[in-house]
Amino acid sequence: MSSSALKQTSSRLSRSFLSRTSRAISTRQLSSNSEPFYGSPREERKHLSPLQSISLAVYSATNAFLNPERHDMVATLAEVTGEVSLQNILLEMKNDHVGQRILLDKPRVDTASIDIDALGQLPENTFGYGYYKFLKHHGFNPDERAKVKYIQDEELHYVMTRYRQSHDFFHVVTDLPPSIPGELALKYVELFQIGLPVCALSATVGSMKLNAEDRKIWKEKYLPWAIRVGKGGKKWMNVYWEQEFETDLQELRTKLGIETAPTL
């Protein structure tokens, strides 16, 4: 091939490459609502057909049963089996004046929204300081909560997110440790408070994994308490937890009708 022909071929390839690159960048910009393609990633949501939902429910339930510590499977199961419960929670929130504000404001429990270190400067008797101490003592980070993937409806997506992100608040007001018996007791409280089917599965399957001593403690101490607390008091999904950070922790418990967990 002559030198002239080589130059012409190279020129055509360059124009073709630039054209494809330009179209690719344009497509990426349009698909992100005109934001730069290098902008912050959006939450990925996966649409499931009814058959896929059933298959995923069976798969996640099986794995959660075999290994209750597979938090990803438990989270997935909660999403694919919880629509009816989430609809009920949403209705309760819409019928409550505080719940309405939560749905309107859509607060997030993460380090971008909450200054965790600032909570450590609050008086030690406050709910906010109790939350700070709980996170620091156990090495927890609110940013590490699993994202909601399989719920398409915007309102239900937020309700599930709010429930999931509020879990550590529940630990603080109940004074339950994040031990296996403590988590199981909290799941029973959530079963009556929230009503998600996965709470029943987690509590039932998890109790089977306890040794004899822990099972005795759970049945005799934690379970009766969990049923009492779960069935009584204000619905926790209608509590604007972030606005209670400066509230005396014991006063908050009294206001919500929460009896602290048994001290073992």
TrEMBL record:
One Gene Ontology term, aspect cellular component: extrinsic component of mitochondrial inner membrane
Record keyword Zinc present: yes
Principal subcellular localisation of the protein: mitochondrion
A Pfam family hit: Coq4
UniProt pathway: Cofactor biosynthesis; ubiquinone biosynthesis
Residues at which Zn(2+) binds: H167, D168, H171, E183
Catalytic activities: a 4-hydroxy-3-methoxy-5-(all-trans-polyprenyl)benzoate + H(+) = a 2-methoxy-6-(all-trans-polyprenyl)phenol + CO2
InterPro entries named in the record: Coq4, Coq4_euk
Function: Lyase that catalyzes the C1-decarboxylation of 4-hydroxy-3-methoxy-5-(all-trans-polyprenyl)benzoic acid into 2-methoxy-6-(all-trans-polyprenyl)phenol during ubiquinone biosynthesis.
Subunit structure: Component of a multi-subunit COQ enzyme complex.
Protein name: Ubiquinone biosynthesis protein COQ4 homolog, mitochondrial
